[in-house]
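Support case: user asked for a sample of complex input and structure output to validate their parser. Sending the pair below.
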Amino acid sequence: MQYHINKTLTFFLLLTFSATTFATQQNPTPAQVKALQQQALNSDLSYQLVESLTVEIGPRLPGTVADIKTVEWSEKQLKRLGFDKVYREPVTIPVWKRGDAKASITAPFPQNIVVTALGGSVATPKEGIEAEIVRFDSIEQVEQASAAEIEGKIVFIDPITERHRTGKGYGKVVGARSKGAVESAKKGAVAVVIRSIGTDSDRFAHTGMMRYADDVVRIPAAAMSVPDAELVNAMLKRDLPVKIKLHMTPAHKGEGTSYNVIGEITGSQYPDEIVLLGAHHDSWDEGTGALDDGAGMGIVMATGAIIKKSGIQPKRTLRVVLYAAEEIGLIGAKAYVEAHKAELDKHKFALESDFGAGYIWRFDTRVNDSALPAMQKIADALAPLGIERGHNEASGGPDVSMLPNYGVPVVSLQQDGSDYFDYHHTPNDTLDKIDPVKMKQNTAAWVTFAILAAAVDTPLRPIPPKE
Amino acid sequence: MQYHINKTLTFFLLLTFSATTFATQQNPTPAQVKALQQQALNSDLSYQLVESLTVEIGPRLPGTVADIKTVEWSEKQLKRLGFDKVYREPVTIPVWKRGDAKASITAPFPQNIVVTALGGSVATPKEGIEAEIVRFDSIEQVEQASAAEIEGKIVFIDPITERHRTGKGYGKVVGARSKGAVESAKKGAVAVVIRSIGTDSDRFAHTGMMRYADDVVRIPAAAMSVPDAELVNAMLKRDLPVKIKLHMTPAHKGEGTSYNVIGEITGSQYPDEIVLLGAHHDSWDEGTGALDDGAGMGIVMATGAIIKKSGIQPKRTLRVVLYAAEEIGLIGAKAYVEAHKAELDKHKFALESDFGAGYIWRFDTRVNDSALPAMQKIADALAPLGIERGHNEASGGPDVSMLPNYGVPVVSLQQDGSDYFDYHHTPNDTLDKIDPVKMKQNTAAWVTFAILAAAVDTPLRPIPPKE
């Protein structure tokens, strides 16, 4: 106890000292880093931010009133939290409205099932689409199937999403969602319905973006809940043809404007060099976007705020980027690259928090091998938070995933995503799924990384090529 | 291993012997009971039945086509399974259709919430009902409130359902659902919306029956999901008035007919004396009624079937009663009492399986104290299944709960209901929530009880008064 008080006292002395005298010259000391960590562990700011976002705005589909409210909310919060610069950058977005989605099995045993439109899907005709289904385990099976098997039918793609801490089960099967409509339509399908890309067995369908191709007819695309996929399978096992009727009323509404919202804590020594801390401010529309990506918003905003409040000025600029329109195709991320191409070589690091609110358990990087010892020092500072040093093949997160193409080093503060795909893109993505204690650990890791990353003097480029 | 083989051999010898020679005179031997248990533990019949019911019919709201299909399915299955008598008895039912239910918070922070109509609710006007809410912790608080607090508002009753193995948290708060509309309307409320009576935090609203009173105006009644109740509370904590808009289109459609379906295994010695094994065949309409009460259907039907197939004829008649219209007010149960009043004194025991598909962990009874030693013998036979002897204040289950008023002894094979109210009356009540292994243990307990109960010669009446 006494020790703790002394340490805290020491920290405040150091803090005052460094903030006033050596702000632009000294790297943060281990004691300062430790104290920053502790401040983050004691702060519920990141949780309070996602609470405010989900309660006061809720779902934030690009092109809605809520999307613009979120932009305003973000600017207001960043200013309130003391960021040195706060600004927005316009992003042109396609506007899509969900409408309703209803489906039923009409044969052999009629009953309603739970579906949702995949993001970007066209509507069915008013009278709906009714057809026999043809089942495939995977998108690869659809690609290999003959047109004779598929023509005139509703393709049912039924891949199982494996649960894994890293979320790697998702990547293996999400092609069914993104490519299902194109591959099925090429062979004459009238619609595609996939088993939800999710690890739960709740009767929710998981939405998420799908794509069309210019030269392939656009067919409606939906997901059904996992219990409903199992219901359909139980019928198929009886060797009876299964028919589904699908009614969906989504609509494309042309183009709109959203904004990337940016807040900066100016660097003391290299203000034009940037550590990019990203999250995305849009969300799907059926839950309140708490895990995806309200949690990330809270974490990166609190990271800047806690560092600002501490008085320890980062040596390089911390740029919090709250991306627009991630869910509908990384639209804000692409706009950011366009707008900032000229300064991408000044981006020291980029990383994003967009994998829910689980504990961070691993620190991955993608930097030049010569910088690995410098990364190990950061890893050592993260270790007390229960974070292990990972590999050097980090992706950085969806919105920063294209930055390595421009040479930008990326980092992942890898969260435990074991239950992320239970809730992801469903009505069940709500605030109660976030554990405030885990948010504190996340924020502590981010402040640790941010303050140390801003001070790394070792060259990090060129980054290693993708394996 | 050798021992086991010998025991099995002994059983078959005994079985042949008893079935052919002493069927009407001997009580089942411990070895026979043990072998019956083992047959049930090896059989997936109870699971197969609920699988068939949920896949081939699905939800079974009284008054629907599916309800009548269920009656036909039940008769067909009971005949297939070798029951000696199979018949149906008509039950007049009120017919109610759910329609749609939509709700949104319109102030201070507009967003949609997930609601469902409570069973029996009237519709809102076409344009919906929009009003400020007034929150109460419990139905008791509503009863104590003044009309001035409530008049013109939507009453929001917000009780938390505690998780408990016995489900006792449900009974404490379900009054908010059953009595909320009447108590709120008495004081001028325009609608009532309750926090779902459920232990989960999924974004599903839990339906269930509510009641009106003849002399009180009928206001719409809905439940919102637990995450939405928390959302509303988060807004109320900001000291801002919260307004909700509610659109619901349920409708009362007059009267219809359903049927109690009955299957009997005739008693060898006292065929006119009855051990009543109950479950209900109707279900709510948003899930597939797997846990409530498809599981119970599977268990009691398999119980009769496994006993029949074993060749051990019960000394008294085993009467499997598949009740109609339990969910909407024990309508089938009341009709059974009317139809069978004259023979209720011949009902040796009654019990129902209607609490999901968890392991049975306790054996409760309500019999004359003088019969407790005989009950202990049954408890001893249940003990190898992990079942402890409980109290002598059993309720027997919803559909047999009025039989003690007529002197009928009741029993509860108490299931672990720890997660029952996570799924109860939601779209999430689907087959995947049932563990086939637990269904086997349930069925083993029921066959054990049934065969021994049919042979109990001790007088069980008069039963003790309710505490």
